[in-house]
């Protein structure tokens, strides 16, 4: 019976997303039911109690990923891209739940956390800039709101890759604070919300990469130069190809 949740939860998640695609007024209800279903699936598949920390550690990724993707889909004009996003959500949730069922293979958890949370941050940042641009919400409030998502994402990554030391919590808080300030500053660049979200995501990727190496005591001048060159390349590509707002 437990195994069926691996298929049912992602499929129902997909169908709920389709419901608000055709009727936007169902967005909040569909998203709430979708998140609840994912929590139930994690509870059944992992066997952890809802009151346990491990249950919530397992739940952070699928809930945040699906929520951020659903919110981002509201700003997507192209219907084909929206359907692709829904399919991506279905695949990620299936693979993640299947991995938990097979016994928490941490190599897979690390991979899906790194790549999946990268997408989560892109969706989240883009939604923040989209709300600021289209709805006129104050960017300083939205940038503070991004702090919670950033803290959860960073915490989940550190948990997935088994980083445990006395400085972990301090680094998580520092990353959250730094990302909040960067989100606010990046908003004033003359690009559309997708480009701004991409720039903020690159900043997140560089920061989290360097911090992971530092905590694992693997940070060298060579790796520092690699991330610096990678950052310059990414930013150059974005600035040369992005559409100006």
Question: Which structural traits does this protein have?
Answer:
mainly alpha; 2 domains; about 80% helix
Average pLDDT, all residues: 84
Based on the structure, what is the oligomeric state of the protein chains?
single chain
Q: Beta-sheet strand percentage? A: under 5%
Cα-atom Rg, whole angstroms?
Answer: 18 Å
Characterize the main sheet.
none
The N- to C-terminal Cα distance equals: 51 Å
- The number of helical segments is 9
Helix content: over 70%
Q: How many strands in all?
A: 0
Low-confidence parts? none
**Shape designation:** globular
Structural class: mainly alpha
Order of helices and strands: HHHHHHHHH
When the domains are counted, the total is 2
Write the layout of secondary structure elements.
Elements: H1 5-22, H2 27-46, H3 53-73, H4 79-101, H5 106-135, H6 139-160, H7 168-186, H8 193-215, H9 221-241
In short:
With 245 residues, the protein is mainly alpha-helical. It has nine helices and no strands. It is globular and about 50 Å long.
Q: Can you walk through the features of this model?
A:
The chain is mainly alpha-helical. It folds into two domains: 1-104, no CATH class; 125-245, no CATH class. It is 80% helix and 0% strand. It has nine helices and no strands. Helix 1 (5-22) runs antiparallel to helix 2 (27-46), helix 1 packs antiparallel against helix 4 (79-101) and helix 2 (27-46) packs parallel to helix 4 (79-101). The chain is globular and about 50 Å long. The model has no long low-confidence stretch (mean pLDDT 84).
């Amino acid at each position: 019976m437990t195994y069926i949740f691996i298929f049912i939860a992602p499929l129902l998640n997909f169908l709920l997303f389709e419901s608000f695609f055709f009727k936007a007024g169902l967005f909040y209800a569909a998203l709430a039911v979708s998140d609840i279903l994912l929590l139930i699936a994690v509870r059944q598949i992992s066997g952890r109690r809802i009151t346990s920390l491990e249950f919530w550690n397992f739940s952070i990724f699928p809930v945040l990923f699906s929520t951020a993707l659903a919110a981002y889909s509201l700003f997507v004009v192209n219907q084909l891209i929206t359907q692709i996003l829904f399919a991506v959500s279905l695949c990620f949730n299936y693979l993640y739940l299947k991995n938990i069922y097979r016994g928490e293979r941490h190599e897979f958890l690390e991979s899906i956390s790194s790549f999946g949370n990268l997408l989560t941050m892109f969706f989240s940042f883009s939604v923040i800039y989209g709300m600021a641009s289209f709805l006129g919400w104050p960017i300083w409030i939205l940038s503070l709101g991004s702090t919670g998502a950033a803290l959860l994402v960073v915490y989940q990554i550190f948990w997935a890759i088994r980083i445990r030391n006395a400085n972990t919590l301090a680094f998580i808080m520092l990353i959250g604070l730094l990302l909040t300030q960067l989100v606010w500053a990046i908003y004033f660049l003359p690009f559309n919300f997708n480009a701004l979200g991409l720039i903020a995501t690159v900043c997140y990727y560089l920061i989290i990469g360097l911090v992971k190496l530092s905590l694992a005591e693997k940070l060298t001048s060579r790796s520092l130069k690699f991330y610096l060159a990678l950052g310059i390349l990414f930013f150059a590509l974005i600035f040369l190809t992005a559409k100006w707002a």
